[in-house]
Amino acid sequence: MKYLEEFRDPQLARKLLDDIQQLVTRPWALMEVCGGQTHSIIRNGIDQLLPPEIELIHGPGCPVCVTPLEIIDQALSIAARPDVIFCSFGDMLRVPGSEKDLFQVKSAGGDVRIVYSPLDALKIAQENPAKEVVFFGIGFETTAPANAMAIFQAQRLEVTNFSVLISHVLVPPAIEAILSSPHNRVQGFLAAGHVCSVMGYWQYTSLVERYQVPIVVTGFEPLDILQGIRTAVSQLERGEAKVDNAYQRAVTYAGNKAAQNMLADVFVITDRQWRGIGAIPASGWKLSQKYAAFDAVKRFTVSDIHTQESTLCRAGEVLQGLIKPNECAAFGSECTPRRPLGATMVSSEGACAAYYRYGRFITADTITMEQSPT
Prior knowledge:
Layout: H1 2-6, H2 10-23, E1 28-34, H3 35-44, H4 46-49, E2 54-61, H5 63-66, H6 69-79, E3 84-88, H7 102-107, E4 111-114, H8 118-127, E5 132-139, H9 144-157, E6 162-169, H10 171-180, E7 188-192, H11 193-199, H12 204-211, E8 215-218, H13 222-238, E9 243-245, H14 257-266, E10 267-274, E11 278-287, H15 296-300, H16 315-319, H17 351-357, H18 364-371
Parallel strand pairs: 1-2, 1-7, 3-4, 3-5, 5-6, 7-8, 8-9
Antiparallel strand pairs: 6-11, 10-11
Helix pairs in contact: 2-13, 8-9, 9-14
């Protein structure tokens, strides 16, 4: 409780907001990379408390949201097999594929189970040797070490009925894709603190030097986010561009070397498709040749699945920071948590889910118009 009180102190929040107000002399657009940060911002109304000159743009940092539709359909195909126990984190069960989701596969008789760790799935494989057990391995650099450890252990223990459907994506290439886009408006980034706790922040130095945009490693409590914003705005106002660590209690420059070594052993860098965004070079991991026997795509021959996104869903534009969720015509009408068009509406880190849950159904422009005298 003392920890929570320290990082939710209203007096310190007021001071940080005052500092930001005093710093700002012109408009700035900042992107928070992580969907967990987006939810904290919307839940606490941070974007509404900031000076109007500062715009927070929601980034693509929701691993559930950016998992390609093709991989969702691969998961659905594998999970429907009678010889398979399909294990996944709970977030993935409501993510829509082309025609259905994992909950519907489960209701039709598929053995789909929610687990809280990939090692839970490995244990299920050991307990059910007559079944093929598949774990849905998604996420950024944060969840990847645990998934790598499960694969490492499966090989060490010779658990041959265990495999992983891999959809791991990497943050730095996504930031570079945003910065190199002709539509980019982002002038500074709040980097995801939990990713940096694993990988460090040494990878961001070259991005800052190349694009001259500040990147501030930021946590998830309201005060963490305000501190990150203050640091980024301070740099921008001074005309600086560097990597700053505003999350020192959890993040070091080098990161977790043991986790990085495990990742380097189990995975190799590959190009990845991002749902709603497209292909980003060298933006993901796949299993190295040493562990290729645990690749569920090869084991179940589902690599030839082709899909097409809903024409109504604008989640890709949301993930790129081009629009806010409530600027999509389908938001809250054709697209709701019960009947989602895209993953951003059902993921616990999705921007559309945050806007729906916390009642952001109208845009700032609409509010301004309604308040204007007739």
